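Tutorial handout. Part one gives the primary structure; part two gives the three-dimensional structure as tokens.
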Amino acid sequence: MVITSKSNPLIKEIVALSDKKFRSKLGLYIVEGTKTVNECIAAGCEITKVVCSEELIADYHDAVAVSRDIFEYISSEKTPQGVLAVVKIPQNFLKPPESSCLLLDCLQDPGNLGTIIRTANAAGYKDLYLINCTDPYSAKAVRASMSGIFFINVYRGERAEILSMLDGLPLICADMDGENIFSFVPPKKFCLCIGNEGGGISDEVMKTADYKISIPMSGTCESLNAAVSAGIAMYQLKYNLKR
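Part two.
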């Protein structure tokens, strides 16, 4: 059977999941694209449905087939590849990290968040704490994470409870007035904090900082993109040869 109606309950649910409110209510998010869906399956994520256009049905066991018009209707991609998965959002309850981790304070751009998740996965950071950030399970953030979202433990909570959870772990805040990161020798275990794209790290978080680090820039550059800054800092702090 091939779904051809926009009023089908599954189609309505998928469309609703483009809204953060419904992602939170249903505890589900969308993964789209051949490579990403295959990696989601391989990573062992809890998938509730795989939906594909009818010409791809032979490639996905137990998938739900929809017409090409319907797939284009439910897709968030400009050029849909014809397959998506409905995935359960992991219920990660706050707990201390096992190794060095990341704290993102009020990050608002989903592309930046997804890119940071992608880089964190590549650099070997497993735990990511979010304070008042954009939704990591939005289509844009998931796409930018390039499957990193499947391998990172994402924790969300209030500022006070997250800071309490991280108490005792050295907090390294990225700040333009901080010490040059390339001469800074970090502790073996730490939490790197990256702030809001425009306002930086909040005063509440900054006052708990054990260290402040900065990335040197030429006089013609005012600032770096948050995801770029995070990427440089993640690698430099984790693989610092002066340690």
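Part three, for discussion. The longest strand covers residues 171-180. The radius of gyration is 20 Å.
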